[in-house]
Write a structure and sequence with these properties.
The protein is an alpha/beta fold. The strands form 3 sheets. Strands 3-2-1-4-5-6-9 form a 7-stranded parallel beta sheet, sandwiched between helices. A two-stranded parallel sheet has the order 7-11. The chain is globular. The relative contact order is 0.13. The structure holds NADP nicotinamide-adenine-dinucleotide phosphate (NAP). NADP nicotinamide-adenine-dinucleotide phosphate binds next to helix 1 and strand 2.
């Protein structure tokens, strides 16, 4: 039987790299990567972009492992359509602030005869969040992600929607602002585990035209998660607990930037009584063999270095001081 080809867009980002690496390891699909031509607009979810040299090294490594790299102007359907010929599944891992880059890609997929489009989601269940009462920058983004799913459906392409809950590394800067009372279970997926679970979801027949809300790393409460962090660090983790009113007030005072975006997520998760329980654990039912990275390892290898990086970037931009005064 000929193997299906999975093509990854936004491949050199956090979710993208882990997705391509897992596709290679899994050996179920032929793997292709769309490389955006040098000089195209560069964005990143955490504001820290990658250099051309870093990407080139990554492409060379993947080429050695049998991946086909196709370099395209990602804004041009004329270039995207031939590059997508032969692709069965397109996985998009574009950053949060480049959601709109997927429009030409969807059209090109339709024209190239691609079977399924997996849009860059990997957070809340935006289908619900788009209707949440408080208007924030995150709800604007949620509305666009929900709309993109409609666009995919309009083209007649199959889709797989993958909400992945909270990436713990984004919410661990101390004092940690817990969303709610910290007792309700939520889905946690570190960025690398998000990328790693995508090929497993795609290989499962139940993922066709489905919303598959996963907890790729852990399904536990904030308090349970912070307990593990305290064990790893060998000390108490400084934290406070905010309900929806406090999140809304903090968001209203915060100037635009990364902290404002994170506060908008706090608003989204506490804005309705059902907000916290909307994340699912699809993988527990459908992918029992998938093992998330143990939380101890996630904290040591991913969360703590990420928190230090974010802290340094926020201090450099002056944003951290603004956040401290808004508490
Ligand atoms: N729930 C959460 O807590 C949470 C946290 C973080 C992210 N997310 C979600 O996860 C998804 C993936 O985010 P990520 O953090 O993995 O992304 P990321 O690491 O920021 O992605 C960066 C990569 O995106 C590509 N890219 C850069 N600028 C672009 C542009 N203008 N147009 C298209 N592609 C561009 C580049 O790869 P190439 O040059 O190889 O194309 C770049 O290396 C997003 O949808 C985001 O909303 C969720």
């Amino acid at each position: 039987m000929t193997r299906k080809t999975v093509t990854v867009f936004g491949a050199t980002g956090t979710a993208g790299i882990a997705c391509v690496d897992e596709l290679i390891r899994q050996k179920l699909f032929d793997v292709c990567v769309l490389a955006r031509k040098p000089g195209q607009q560069e964005k990143a979810s955490n504001g820290m972009t990658h250099s051309e040299a870093t990407k080139r090294k990554q492409y060379d490594e993947w080429t050695r492992q049998g991946v086909t790299i196709k370099t395209v102007d990602a804004t041009s359907v004329e270039e995207l359509i031939p590059a997508l010929a032969g692709t069965s599944y397109l996985v998009s891992c574009v950053p949060i602030n480049a959601t709109e880059s997927q429009y030409p890609l969807i059209w090109a997929c339709k024209e190239a005869g691609v079977e399924r489009f997996v849009p860059s989601e990997f957070g809340a269940i935006y289908e619900f969040e788009q209707y949440w009462p408080t208007n924030t920058s995150h709800r604007v983004m949620a509305r666009q992600k929900a709309y993109i799913r409609r666009v995919i459906e309009t083209t007649g392409l199959d889709f797989t929607i993958i909400p992945a809950g909270l990436w713990p590394e984004y919410y661990m800067l101390e004092p940690v602002a817990v969303m709610g009372d910290g007792n309700e279970k939520v889905a946690w997926s570190s960025g690398p585990d998000v990328g790693r679970i995508i090929p497993h979801i795609l290989a499962h027949p139940a993922s066709r035209n489905a919303i598959c809300p996963v907890a790729a790393t852990a399904y536990c409460s904030w308090n349970e998660l912070l307990e593990v962090r305290e064990r790893v660090l060998g000390r108490k983790v400084d934290r406070y607990y905010w309900g929806s009113e406090q999140w809304r007030a903090a968001y209203a005072k915060q100037p635009p930037g990364i902290i404002s975006l994170l506060m908008a997520i706090g608003v989204a998760l506490t804005d309705t009584p059902a907000g916290m329980s909307l994340f699912g654990n699809w993988n527990k039912t459908f992918l029992p063999e998938f093992k998330g990275t143990p939380l101890e390892v996630v904290f040591r290898d991913r969360v703590e270095p990420f928190v230090e990086g974010i802290r340094a970037a926020l201090v450099a931009s002056g944003e951290l001081a603004a956040a401290t005064t808004s508490k």
